[in-house]
């Protein structure tokens, strides 16, 4: 399982602590230094079953500075995925990629269910 995080994000740190406390093995990846590629995002989005908006860090500075709240609705999925691939800080974190699930953000109940706990 891969977990893409930003170490300065308190939610990411809480999520990693939760994984450690539950003895769940994961591979950590720094989302800012090694942002997801277009190909990865396209694959994860398809696998997730989530609306594409769930992959955007809607509370982030870059999202707000770019005025994406209004712009996304006029963009194709492909354009949105390409935009997400330009900067890891645009991506909702933590982003978890398991064998049979993809999760954005940290919600304990959702994570427990996805990881069959």
Automatic annotation (TrEMBL):
**Family the entry assigns:** Belongs to the ArsC family.
Q: What is this protein called?
A: Regulatory protein MgsR
Transmembrane regions: none
Q: Which organism is it from?
A: Blautia wexlerae
SUPFAM superfamilies with a match to the protein in the record: Thioredoxin-like
InterPro entries, per this entry? Arsenate_reductase-like, Thioredoxin-like_sf, Tscrpt_reg_Spx/MgsR
List the Pfam families hit by this protein, alphabetically. Answer: ArsC (PF03960)
